[in-house]
Amino acid sequence: MFLMNTSGAASPRIRRIAVCLTALALPMMAASAAAAETKSFVISYFYDANFSDGKTDCPAGLNMSAIDFYRRDLAKAGHSHDEIEAALKDFPGEGGLKQPWVPLVVTRGNGKDNVYAHPETMADPGMIEVSGKYSYGFNLDGKGAASPSKFEEPDTHEQGVNNGLYKVEGCIRSYRGLPPPGRPSLPENLWDVLRDVMPAWLITVTAADGFGKDGPVTVTWDRALERITRDASGAVAQADMTYQVDPDPRSHNELKGQIKGNVVTVEPAKFNMVLDPYLQPEIRFEQTHMRINIAADGSIRGVLGGYQPWMTVYYGFADQGHIKEYAGSINLPALYYALKRNADYDPDPKTGQNRQISSAYLLEGVPAYVIPATNKTAAADTDSSAKAR
Amino acid sequence: MAYLSKILASAAVAVTIYTGAAVSGVADDKPAGGEVVTRRLSQEQYRQVITDLFGPSIKVGGRFEPDIRRDGLLAMGASQVSVTASGLEEYDKIARNIAAQVVGEAHRDTLIPCKPANAKAADDACAGQFLAETGKMLYRRPLTQDELQSRVKVANDAAVGLKDFYSGLGISLATMLESPKFLFRQEIAETDPDHAGQFRMDAYSKASQLSFFLWDAAPDPELLAAAEHGDLNSDSGLAKQVDRMIASPRIQGGVRAFFTDMLGFDEFETLAKDSMIFPKYSTKVAKDAQEQTLRTITDLLVTQKGDYRDIFTTRKTFITPLLASVYNVPFVAPAGGWAPYEFPAGDSRAGIVSQVSFVALHSHPGRSSPTLRGKAVREVLLCQKVPTPPANVNFTLVQDTKNPQYKTARARLGAHATDPTCAGCHKIMDPIGLGLEAFDSGGSLRSSENGDTIDTHGELDGMKFTDAAGLAQAVHDDPAAPSCVVSRISSYGLGRLPGKGEADWVKTLQAGFKDDGYKFPALLRRIATSPEFYRIAPPQTGALDAPSKLASQAP
Amino acid sequence: MIPINRTMNRRRVLRGMMGGAAISVGLPFLDCFLDTNGTALASGQALPVVFGTWFWGLGLNPGRWEPAKPGKLETMNVELQPLAPFKDKMNVFSGMKAFLDGKPNGVHFSGVQGMLTGTVPRGMLADKPSVDTLIADVIGTRTRFRSLEVACAGNPQHSQSRRNGAVVNPAEVSPAALYTRIFGPEFTDPNAADFKPDPAVIVRRSALSAVADDRASFEKTLGAADRARLDEYFTSLRGLEQQLDLQMEKPAPLAACTVPGKVDETPVGTEIEVVKTNHKLFAALLAHAVACGQTQVINVAFADATSSLRRAGGTQTHHEFSHEEPVDAQLGYQPTLAWFFNEIMGSFAFFLAQLDGIKEGDKTLLDRTTIMTATDLGYAKLHGLENMPMMTVGSGGGRLKTGLHIPAQGEPTSRVGLTLQQAMGVPVSSWGTDSMQTSKTITEIMA
């Protein structure tokens, strides 16, 4: 479903060749069957791969909204009914630190310590997790049908998909998926805000035997020097913009894979991308899997998955403390415990606690020119990306 | 009233003012000129005056009455428009807004050359000084005694009523900004001492004629001073100013204003593109596209002093990263702004006809249009009129097949071309526009439409071509192209079509343009130094009004 | 009534009143007060009549709008169905046409000019004033705005209202801007308890006389043609002066006047949903403006003559469909066109509902209004000028009979313009030129 191209297809795109500055591209160059070809893309959307059909993913209902779980947690912490109601009277108010409820919820574990920095000062209040059949993602542990994870991939029907992150997040109302072309609301919003200030993400796919036939590919992921430019609709990235690759190795990845038809997959490998603390500081995968569909109009939709440190995920939420908690109705201590509980890889040799959790993200992209960084000052003009809307 | 005479110099110039009328035969060896045109300032000219006079920090807000296009130019429509009721309402708002800023605390010390004795009361001396200086720049000539007195009185009454000198002054300034003497360019004639029985524009009218022509702006202080001293009435004095103005960086603004008008860029304001079909085409793209074409033209014509015809074939241009995405080429520019770009040799994109500002402007919101583009090449670039379509167009022919959906525009129009009633006119438009079919409505290159390959062969008056670059060469080689720009620029400057008696002058300009190697600044110089540019036809009745005194400042 | 002394120096009179004294003393009556047509001065008398035009492009599908029988409007034909709720308040005229008299058919221009100015021009340039300006000159002289023009598809030049022929009165394209213009800082609420004239307004009014005084010296430099053209400028100046004069008087209270909420900026364009949204906002604003006495003449251009309306994601405009869509063999008409016409008539019904929704005593605002519809063609596909749809809605305060279908086969459309001018009090017995000239009032609708 997700990987079907639901965007209105325009006339067939011209085959595209990436260029470096020493040679200019001619848009209609015919590729010979044996010659290598490269296609490059810029990512328009990137968000948690949370599947939902609206019914079967959360049969036990959704996690309660912030005002409700604050009431519950504060009562559990020993506050009186009147005290709680007084504090929550104008909830949320401006949400700033001056609101009366904020100091109470921040220390609602033991009344003293910051519960986001020290979640274990509070007993696990519980989290409704996903109990449906389907999940985007990959069979990371290789166990397939024999896996303890019973998720099935909705597009490929792969069995034993490992996606602990989805299991944890999928019934939080702000993180719940929507049927395509919808995206989970809070991740979509966060990415939408972030992409105006964060450098763009670039993917290139080089097919050794050309794109006309199946064969080996090299896939690179890099960060750009420029931010994306939005197109006329304002929602997606403008196609065919030029981006320079940020030479920083922290955001460079090269993966080996295969192309079959128009689908690109990679062999498991390590992966790292610098992200932004607004979401989480970085994405660092082991056993990285990827599947990208290249549509007839040149755009891409895909899935990126792997194991990542669950503490990184937790801090991506916790560093904004009560703000993300109340705005997204995400009980952060509950999230902490749920991530910890669902972590399924890389046990700590001393404690046995798994340090990484299986995850998957969905991506959407459009064609772009990707070139090495030049000497020119290359940061995108803020005006052009704002006015392009 | 003593204070006024201190301000006024006694150098009043006797001017004959007459009522203009149409050209009539005159017994003289020189052509007779045309009638007086009274042109309303365009929005851009209005803004430029305010910027030149008060500086760029004064904001001009509000909605201007639309300019209209006549005979292919907004500059000619300017002599047809008046001011409607809602238009004047807006001018009034804009004027009061500007005046409030000028006299406001932030600007009054820099913009008002004197201080009132008492800020809470009227001060005719200071008001008079400001209004005389400012009025001269606004009316583009010194104020008459009556005019100055009237505005000083307004300032006085208002200052008394509002108990504030500056508010009073602002009210008076606003009335000048909505006066017809500011909003309309008056052409005032005088007898021509060098040609008996002939009339010419008076010195100040000449200054305006010259300044709006070369810089699309009101005369600057140096030009007004030259007018005052009579310099503009001598060939050498006029040439000195013309050369100064052509050498100035401000010539770029004037050339841009002309081509913006000639190429019809005002239509971009109401151009619609469906963002679902053309997601790349945004209003920023439209803005950048116009800028690209104007930079291409001014660089070639003014900076490089190149051949005018080369604007149709040059592959050298200037683009932004956003435009590069529409042109589908890799491109990096400093800080995401403008940088030169050259399309490679053999690329079908050459010249302004293949640029987004042409192909996107002359298209429908949802698809391209060979007819609109062919018509635009004829009418905009070659000054050739295409007849309007007949009202009783019969479209049953198009639908008279099993599948009315033709895959490409060529196929659709091919059906039209076989009907003799359609073919007559479509023959002069479609073969041109079909050469541009590789550009979709948003301006991007494409090779097929609805699955069928696009064939871009065509012809322009016998010159055949196979792609847009070939079309560009055909336009370049067409003698109508340089003649057309000469016609347009001379009408643009005159604000009207040349009269019968001026046809020879235009022919001379066209020949001169060729002799000059089609260099545009040389053409501007020829026009600006022609006596024909400043001639006014004699009145039919011959009745002349009494001379009136002009108030002028001491030099 | 006090006769006007036109040379009286307003500034002298107004200066004597700086100090906030009552304004009505000593101020010369405006010449419009001598108008025999109205009684708007004293409160408690009949609310003034309202006139408007509502324009859309490309007519309707022939055979699908004409009522079946002459006389009382019983049922509406399919393309006028959206107007069924108003059938008792409207009149439909079928069979009317525009006569070219051998002039070339200016396709989307000749028909609407004939209908609105009584003259089918030679070439593309109109040269006569439109009927709404002629009526505004009679009924629009005592309101803050002589008339208000709006264009729902984003281009001020879509307006069909013109005073001198060459140039239209530009229309507002932004509902937010119209809101500010009418109900912004310069609005005087007729129902406000206290009224203090703004001293700045008095000063501005006085100052404007200096601009009017510029006239004589300015006109000396003009040729005859320019003088006529610049006359419009000075008419506009008088309009501005009048606006300020009205701001200095306490307006009579109007029970039906309520100030609408502020309108936010909306996108502007030719895509039909955008046009409909802006039209709705405009309709509401205009209804409120009339109810609050701000104007008595309103002109709405739903789209341009030619009709560049389009559907999002569609490659063809309404205009292109009119020429390229075949007449459906089964249905007998152009179905996509029918879709557009349905949207357009639905919008017109919304507009009427805004007027009809404002109660004034036991009547509604629509009851003292007459709206004249206007369109450019009778048969868009072939630019036909026969059988042009013509309608009036509203009895104009009882000046017209309503609820009738008047077949008028072969009659010039100018008969409607003539009749409405007469109903509104314009002293005209014959109107139009060449074969559009008529002196035949449609007596069946005259009350």
Keywords:
heterotrimer, B: 555 residues, mainly alpha, 3 domains, 3-stranded antiparallel sheet, 11 strands, disordered N terminus, disordered C terminus, C: 447 residues, alpha/beta, Alkaline Phosphatase, subunit A, 8-stranded mixed sheet, two-stranded antiparallel sheet, 10 helices, 10 strands, 9% strand
What does this structure look like?
The complex is a heterotrimer of chains A (389), B (555) and C (447). Chain A folds into 2 domains: 37-60 and 127-387, no CATH class; 66-121, no CATH class. In chain A, 19% of the residues lie in helices and 27% in strands. Chain A has helices spanning 66-76, 81-87, 101-106, 164-169, 185-194, 310-318, 321-328, 332-342, 382-387; strands spanning 37-48, 151-152, 159-161, 201-207, 215-223, 241-245, 252-260, 263-266, 271-276, 280-294, 300-309, 345-347, 354-372. Chain A has an 8-stranded antiparallel beta barrel with strand order 1-4-5-7-8-10-11-13. A two-stranded antiparallel ribbon of chain A has the order 2-3. The radius of gyration of chain A is 22 Å and the shape is globular. Chain A starts with 36 loop residues before the first strand and ends with a helix. Chain B is mainly alpha-helical and 555 residues long. Chain B folds into 3 domains: 20-37 and 187-248 and 479-538, no CATH class; 40-185 and 545-555, no CATH class; 262-477, no CATH class. Chain B contains 24 helices and 11 strands. Chain B has helices at residues 2-7, 43-54, 74-77, 85-103, 108-111, 124-139, 145-162, 165-177, 180-183, 203-215, 221-228, 235-247, 251-262, 283-303, 321-327, 356-359, 370-381, 396-399, 409-417, 420-433, 468-477, 480-494, 503-515, 520-528, and strands at 39-40, 184-185, 189-191, 199-201, 316-319, 339-342, 448-449, 452-453, 458-460, 463-465, 535-536. Chain B has a 3-stranded antiparallel β-sheet with strand order 3-4-11. The radius of gyration of chain B is 27 Å and the shape is globular. By secondary structure, chain C is of the alpha/beta class. Chain C has a single domain (40-195, 250-445), classed as Alkaline Phosphatase, subunit A. Helix content of chain C is 31%, strand content 9%. Chain C contains 10 helices and 10 strands. An 8-stranded mixed β-sheet of chain C has the order 2-10-3-9-8-1-5-4, sandwiched between helices. In chain C, helix 5 (199-219) packs antiparallel against helix 6 (224-247) and helix 7 runs parallel beside helix 9 (335-356). The model of chain C is unreliable at 1-44 (pLDDT under 50). The chains are: A alpha+beta (389), B mainly alpha (555), C alpha/beta (447). The interface between B and C is large, with 74 and 75 residues.
